[in-house]
Amino acid sequence: MSTIIYPSPIFGPVHSRRLGVSLGVNLMPGDGKVCSFDCIYCECGFNADYRPKEKRPTREEVRGALASVLKQRHAAGEPLDVITFAGNGEPTGHPDFAGIIDDTVELRNEYFPEAKVSVLSNATYIYKEEVRNALLKVDNNILKLDTVCDDYIQKVDRPVSPRYKVADVVADLRKFNGKVIIQTMFMEGEYDGKSVSNTSDAYVQPWLEAVKEIAPSQVMIYTIDRETPAHNLRKASRETLDGIREMVEAAGIDCTASY
Asked: What is the pTM (predicted TM-score) of this model?
């Protein structure tokens, strides 16, 4: 299996399907994965298979590395569309996440004021006020909501915390008052002999109602793009994603689909 473990704290830039030329910020160790989810479709593999020996980068290390890369790209006239927090696990789990966001916005303003700051998050830490406040400072606050079915989440996203409840996450997503982008993975297939397809009305309609309650600025729906640690997972079809996108747009919410 072709697993991707990203360097830390800076990697790329890479070309993102959704965001353009993206310089990555990985707040997890560069030799493994630390995440509050253990998704069966994660390109970084299963948590247990890639336990790191290194520590997470400090706030000072992140600032120094980011400043160096931005200064170099600016001097060379190299383009940059976005600085994206992603990598080998959940970025908002870093103990200095709020301060790192402040540093990033400051450096962005100095070197690439036209670039966006994006965070790709699974939303497991948005119950913390300091995390929500930090996310409100970025341009693209992209938070995951694959379904509103707890059983599905336990089977597919596999949260580490036994206290995870989708209803609580939806309630916290509403606290952003629209300054949030909802990101949802739609797929087909099986895992451990059970269906993990979430493209039927039984999943899509309750999810759509939750999206309407959250009233995000945008919804990003996507499907499998790289090799997954679990076998027997399949891409959702273009027709399926287009149908879901049209339902979101009919609710008056901007929606993009990545195939």
From this structure: 0.95
